[in-house]
Amino acid sequence: MNSIARFRPILAALCFFSAAASAVAQGSAFTYQGKLTDGGSAPTGAYDFRFILYNADAGGSQVGTTLTADDVAVTAGAFTVVLDFGPNIFDGQARWLELAVRQGASTGFYTVLSPRQPVTPAPYAIFAAKAGSVANGGITAAQLAPGEVTGAAIACGAITADKIPDGAISTNKLSPAVLAGLGGTPSGAVLMSQDPNATNLTAAGYVRFGSEVIANQSEVILFNGDYQPCDPNQSFPQSIWTGSDLVIWGSLFESVAYRYNLASNRISIISGAGAPINCDSHTTVWTGTEMIVWGGRTNSQSDLYANTGGRYRVNTDTWVPTSISGAPTGRRSATAVWTGSEMIVWGGYHQTGSSLNTGGRYNPRANSWTPVSTVNAPAGRSLHAAFWTGTQMIVWGGDALATGGLYNPLTDS
Amino acid sequence: MFARSAVWTGTHLVVFDGLTKRLKRYSLSTDTWETLPASPESNGNALGVWTGSSLVLVPGASIAVLDWNTLAWTAKASGKPNSFHGRSAHWIGDSALLFDPTSALPLLRVRPQNPLYLYVKP
């Protein structure tokens, strides 16, 4: 058979059709159309075709398998075949297709047509070819659909700490062992727990050992500021806690008046202007804004007991004297409680040598005194205990007494 | 019983004698007295503070804490300097602030702490 074949440059169009087909069903087959001339004429009849891919336009090596198509109908030279060299043949490398043909009734040799035809890409095949040559970093987040990247697509160890925003890992994402601070702890690691039976630790492989550990429970405060200690042979000042400050006042022979501020860790000397006369064994209450001191011993040599006092305003560092009009008789070692609106002074030791069962209520707003009823009052006493319960003053003990009483200021009883 | 010191818990008056280690509490609502377990240490100068949930006795050689729910004492070494003699104690929220007017460093902060237990990973 004398045959020549001219393959028009329609391969691209064929490939175009192939691409359209593959959009319906993914595959590697494509349609090939050609036009065969035989002796200068366009024949009609059955022909056998053989297709071989090479990696060069001449010589080179065969790529893939040899395909044959027998008894292909050729009409006026035109024929159509479907070729499938498999999925991995067209990998972007240059390919040339060699055709050979023989008449359909023949079983002899094929006539090889030359030249080999370069396999050129169809437009969408060009587009598809880009998939094999995506530049590094060419795939942006916009190309990824939400939720499409699965765990299997992430390499082990690929997620580093800098990929995780600060504070993004919540505790419910951590195992109990990690929460217990045990994650990755090596053999020999030691932990301390307040729980003598810490099951979370033992469950994580820890065992308890040794004896209890006690942290230092006392700390001498090394404050800023000056403080002059009292003579241990003299009487001692009293202190009240305001919620932020320790206010220290009262000594028989010394002018001891300090204020320690916890936040600043500083001791400072408070104002002495308008303060009551030096005394000890006085009463002290904190009202929430003022420290009220009252009574006490003013001179140990002659045992003078005061019925005077003063209100120290912490915010302004100033003193205001308490009224002496209607004040209880002077005394020392009495007690006082703050009710929220009044200071109740009760009991104490009188300079005549007897303990008292009298008292008075001081209203700082009115700067006035009201006597406390003595009806059914407990026996006189000093150095006793007294507290405000919220509605009543409870008094107990003192002077070796094991008795007490309750006083209600609303009913004065 | 001669009470050398007393505290108010909000519902009870607690009186204690540091020398005899005896304690009693008085219930205002029931008007009754109840003897409490004796404190672990004898100290006539013991000061008491109420923390809101327990009674703390300081500042002897030990800090003794009486749990109000179990009425059980826990006593641990205080670490207090021997030269410090507290004359007053105030509970300041997380610790007791003790005042010794005769000391050049008159303030001692005492934090009653639970013991810690050691665990090792073999």
Description:
- The complex is a heterodimer of chains A (413) and B (122).
- Chain A has 4 helices and 28 strands.
- In chain A, strands 3, 4, 6, 7 and 8 form a 5-stranded antiparallel sheet that branches. A 4-stranded antiparallel sheet of chain A has the order 12-13-14-15, with no helix packed on it. In chain A, strands 16-17-20-21 form a 4-stranded antiparallel sheet, with no helix packed on it.
- Chain A is mostly beta strands.
- Chain A has helices spanning 11-24, 123-129, 176-179, 199-203, and strands at residues 4-6, 30-37, 45-54, 62-74, 78-83, 96-103, 111-112, 117-118, 190-193, 207-213, 218-220, 238-241, 245-249, 257-261, 266-269, 283-286, 290-294, 297-299, 304-305, 309-313, 318-321, 335-338, 343-346, 359-363, 368-371, 385-388, 393-396, 404-407.
- Chain A has 2 domains: 4-128, Immunoglobulin-like; 238-407, Kelch-type beta propeller (Neuraminidase, 6 Propeller), CATH 2.120.10.
- Chain A is rod-shaped.
- In chain A, β14 and β15 form a beta hairpin.
- In chain B, a hairpin with a 3-residue loop joins β6 and β7.
- Chain B has 122 residues and is mainly β.
- Helix content of chain B is 0%, strand content 48%.
- Chain B has strands at residues 5-8, 12-17, 22-27, 32-36, 47-50, 54-58, 62-67, 73-77, 88-91, 96-99, 107-110, 116-120.
- Chain B has a domain at 5-80.
- In chain B, the strands form 3 sheets. In chain B, strands 1-2-3-4 form a 4-stranded antiparallel sheet, with no helix packed on it. A 4-stranded antiparallel sheet of chain B has the order 5-6-7-8, with no helix packed on it. Chain B has a 3-stranded antiparallel sheet with strand order 9-10-11, with no helix packed on it.
- The chains are: A mainly beta (413), B mainly beta (122).
- Chains A and B meet through β9, β10, β11, β12 and β26 of A and β1, β11 and β12 of B.
- β10 (207-213) of chain A pairs antiparallel with β12 of chain B, so a sheet runs across the interface.
